[in-house]
Design brief:
Blueprint (H helix, E strand, L loop, with lengths): L18 E2 L11 H19 L6 H17 L17 H18 L5 E5 L4 E5 L10 E6 L14 E3 L7 E4 L4 E3 L15 E3 L8 H19 L8 E6 L20 E7 L4 E6 L1 E10 L8 H4 L5 H11 L15 E10 L4 E10 L2 H22 L2 E10 L10 H11 L5 E5 L4 H8 L7 E3 L2 E2 L7 E3 H17 L7 H24 L4 H4 L3
Parallel strand pairs: 4-9, 4-10, 10-17, 11-16
Antiparallel strand pairs: 1-2, 2-3, 3-9, 5-8, 6-7, 8-19, 12-14, 12-15, 13-14, 18-19
The structure holds zinc ion (ZN).
Zinc ion (ZN) binds next to α4.
Length: 514
């Protein structure tokens, strides 16, 4: 999940993202030691599974899942906003993506799956169906970047097995302690495994837990061809925590019929709706001149028009402090004054669940601007930017029921939530409403804080729910319009990849595959 405030600086720029295949040999972000470490871990996991170290195959994947999550926490991967870049990208993100991509190759390649990495470090995996029946294309997403809002470099995860129900001292010096009194859900973890940081950084379960759940699900499918599945598309993105997960998405490579995201909390809580978020910049152009002779020299004050627009736009009941539950809000977040040009800019934020409420507010904005322009005789410009979209507006009709069934079969009661913020799929949905997806719980508690902790049990539930989705989606009837759009996108992707192949020999190695 992401914070609202980081969305302010969104550059609403869409751009093409050429595909490249990052070979370890020519990837400066990946050392040969990295590759060996990944291979050793993979080999050991396979050996453990095949030689019966674990009572069941499920137990072996459960162990691999936690191991994978812990390995991910060691990799620095904070995204950062950079106003000078259309799509901010740093070396840590590039290295994280390279490691992930290399890891996925270890099982995806032998299974004959297609994997792609875009120039802006989106990882795409296309899994062909292994059944005859035509079933909807399932989608999974997660994000590998972590928030820049709190320290996240050099994370030292600590695993607490068989939690006894008492105080968990995350950091003695800083007096960072969690216990069932301040964390009621922790009280339900007695006898379970939890993971915390050392209190100097976040834990980064947001969203490395989600990535671990998705990757382990894929590993399970690749290594167990007896598990029947339809076609599956997967995307693992950067820059979700700065509100830009949708910006670099190639919708030809990720456009499933029924998408699901793995980036929510605990205990069966699924996010099925969120705010639609818009920013409205209103620029009032004053006119220079001496105030004393304004009646004749044309001087116009911009501030008075700004005040009138703010007044008209935000009656008390629409302010954030009067908004709870499913109410939206409007906020004149801040104003700036450009003295040189005598321009006052008001930056409004609009958040709503109900599209009708949004429509009314945009009409109100039009009227407020027109009235102020006329009354105070100033020129006013406005620029409205969509920041993210309510996933409920375009969600597949079967998605909610399907995720409920999948969680129930994984042993938890689903609870459906409406989030007063944005999710990764909300950022995708801004590009295309059909990409609106439910967001599944992955075991994250207190994200973006030193008190962050992971419930290993909930992480395992996410993994099991993903496998259940793979199974249950086969009973969902196709929605012809969606199926057609997915098909069209897949054909566009094929053409795009062929074109890339002609242009760039580096791509050859990957798209020549099965
Ligand atoms: Zn997240």
């Amino acid at each position: 999940m992401t914070h609202n405030k980081t969305l302010l600086l969104l550059a609403a720029v869409m751009f093409a993202c050429p595909l490249v295949f990052a070979q370890p040999a020519d990837n400066k972000y990946l050392t040969s030691e990295d590759v060996i470490e990944l291979e050793l871990r993979h080999d050991l996991q396979q050996k453990n599974r095949l030689t019966g170290k674990f009572a069941t195959v499920e137990d072996s994947y459960r162990s691999a899942l936690l191991e994978r999550f812990l390995a991910y926490t060691k990799v620095d991967s904070q995204s950062q906003l950079d106003e000078n870049m259309a799509f901010p990208m740093n070396d840590n993100l590039r290295r994280t993506a390279a490691l992930l991509y290399q890891e996925i190759q270890l099982f995806a390649k032998p299974a004959g799956w297609k994997t792609y990495m875009s120039e802006n470090q989106y990882i795409y995996i296309h899994i062909p169906s292994n059944i005859k029946k035509k079933v909807p294309v399932l989608g999974f997403s997660a994000h590998y970047d972590t928030t820049p809002d709190i320290p996240g470099s050099g994370i030292k995860a600590r695993v607490i097995k068989n939690y006894d129900g008492g105080d968990v001292v995350i950091n003695q010096e800083k007096n960072i302690v969690i216990n069932p009194q301040n964390e009621p859900y922790l009280g339900k973890m007695i006898g379970q495994t939890i993971v915390v940081s050392d209190g100097n950084t976040m834990l980064s379960a947001d969203d490395k837990a989600g990535v671990a759940a998705v990757v382990t699900t894929l590993q399970t499918l690749a290594e167990n061809p007896n598990i029947k599945h339809g076609p599956i598309q997967v995307v693992i993105t950067p820059n979700e925590d700065i509100g830009m997960a949708g910006e670099g998405l190639d919708m030809d490579l990720y456009y499933p019929e029924i998408p699901f995201d793995f980036d929510a909390g605990v205990n069966g809580e699924v996010i099925v709706a969120n705010f639609s978020a818009y920013g409205a910049l209103v620029k009032i152009h004053g006119v220079h001149g001496h105030q004393s002779y304004a009646a004749t020299n044309g001087y116009r004050n911009a501030t008075i028009a700004a005040a009138a627009i703010i007044q008209d736009m935000t009656p008390l009941e629409d302010l954030p402090n009067y908004s709870t539950g499913e109410d939206g809000y409007i906020e004149p977040h801040h104003t700036t004054y450009d003295a040189q040009n005598n321009v006052v800019t008001v930056d409004f934020r609009l958040r709503f669940f109900d599209p009708k409420q949004g429509e009314d507010w945009f009409k109100r904005l039009d009227k407020a601007v027109a009235d102020a322009a006329q009354k105070y005789d100033v020129k006013i410009e406005k620029q409205v930017t969509k920041q993210y979209t309510n996933v409920a507006d375009g969600m597949h009709p079967a998605a909610q029921q399907l995720v409920g069934k999948a969680l129930q079969a994984a042993g938890v009661q689903p609870k459906f939530l409406k989030e007063r913020a944005g999710t990764g799929p909300a950022m995708f949905a801004k590009r295309d409403i059909c990409l609106g997806a439910p967001c599944l719980p992955t075991g994250q508690n207190n994200p973006h804080s030193f008190k962050e902790w992971l419930s290993e049990k909930d992480l395992f539930v996410a993994y099991k729910a993903a496998l259940n989705l793979v199974k249950f989606v086969q009973d969902v009837p196709s929605v012809p319009q969606r199926a057609q759009k997915t098909q069209q996108r897949a054909e566009a992707a094929k053409a795009k990849l062929l074109n890339a192949l002609k242009k760039d020999q580096k791509v050859q190695g990957i798209i020549k595959g099965k």
